[in-house]
Amino acid sequence: MAPPALQQENATASSPMAPPPLQPENAPASSAPPSRLDQKLHQILYKPEARTVLEAKPEPEVLAEPPYPIHPDPQPMTKSEYQKLNAIRTWKTWGSPYFKSRWYSNDLRPIIPYLFTEWKCNLDCHYCWSYNNKVKGMTEDTAKRSIDWLHSIGSRVLALMGGEPLLRPKFIHKIVHYSAQKDIFVYLPTNGRLMKPEVIDRLGDAGIATVNLAVDSVKDRKSLPKALDPIRPYFEYLVKRQHHYGYTVMFNINICRNNMDDVRELTEIAHDAGIATDYHINETPMMEQDHFKHLDENVTYLTPDDWSKVDDLLDYLDDKRHNEGYKMVNQSKHMQEMKQLMRGSVPPWNCRAGQNSLIIRTDGTLAPCFPMYSATHDWGTIENPKFDVAQLDEMKKECSTHCLSTCNYILAHCYDTKRVVKWIAKQAMHGFKGSSDTIQ
């Protein structure tokens, strides 16, 4: 139950919302090849070989039921209290593990591990291949063992992934609480449709660190159902409560052929709410995805006719950041290289996937990054990783030219000492009162 002072507010915010009408689609459709990778590499990654299976334990492990509420009547923090909490948490969960990873450079020390609790989703975004509703979700045993293993090798960040993680809110509540008790920074991406006020309060109370709200459109539409209007009361409650619990909020926006006006409007909404934004260029699948059903006749795919419009949009966004102080996760260089990615390829970059970032599939097997989720290559399991730097380096000569993962791109810059020193000096000038910008 929510704290007494919030029961009336929750009752209002969580009441059933009538779904708004779908916005008509007016963009022409286009199709794409099944894969953007070199065929030779694609065949290597999809060899019909058996992956290592996570070894079962005699007694499956379980996650304890979290107490609730831990904080019966949380009061809003002052700005300085909020900044101090997040500065300390950032150092403990990102800063310290990062410097240790530089010292133990030959060890697997993921700064950003992704835990796929689900591969199912409640929405059907027409550009998204990252879900399959036939795949069983992660068990408590696999989740707990994953968290314990990551903690044992020095990781203090846990990015939950899907699909849609909030399909099982009680499961996520358990994961957040267990992780936060181990001083782990928990990052939750969600489309927000299941993010009711009670869920927000439970996760905030348990210690969630940041919520990445994926929205691509203001009004709901068939091809882009990750829309703000259907979840606006939830969004407003999420933003209102962040200073009560100490978490941060950001928008995650995918730039598509049919949402460029929405991108501008969502950026303004985020700025007015005092939250950051993160942008992606819509991409066709990098690797073949047999379950993906929107490869053909897709109104979200960018075409050469759209390139100049996207160029202008990216320049507009970067100008907002530099001249008006809008909070953005992407570096300026990242935005500029999005233009090249849209046109077919980017220069190779120092991707750290499989070294300082990794994904854990729902069954506990490992892969270096999102596009490799469906690959059959054996990279091992939690507790028994099999990442080989030589294999990864050879693979990245090809795949890194077709990818600009925001988190991995920023992580690559973190392994450039000059950039890190420059960024730390910039934060010191601002008194370490919250990050003034991403590492450039």
Question: Can you summarize this structure?
Answer:
Helix content is 38%, strand content 10%. The chain has 13 helices and ten strands.
CATH superfamily: Aldolase class I
Return the structural class: alpha/beta
In terms of per-residue confidence, which ranges show pLDDT below 50 for 5 or more consecutive residues? 1-16
**SS summary, helix count:** 13
- On the 0 to 100 scale, the average pLDDT is 90
Shape: globular
Query: In what range is the share of β-strand residues?
Result: 5-15%
Q: The CATH topology is what?
A: TIM Barrel
Helix content: 25-40%
For the biggest sheet, the summary is: 8 strands, mixed
Work out the count of structural domains: 1
Q: State the end-to-end CA separation.
A: 44 Å
List SSEs in N-to-C order. Answer: HHHEHEHEHEHEHEHHEEEEHHH
CATH top-level class: Alpha Beta
* Record field, number of beta strands: 10
Strand order of the largest sheet: 6-5-4-3-2-1-7-8
Judging by the overall fold, what is the CATH architecture?
Alpha-Beta Barrel
Radius of gyration based on Cα positions: 21 Å
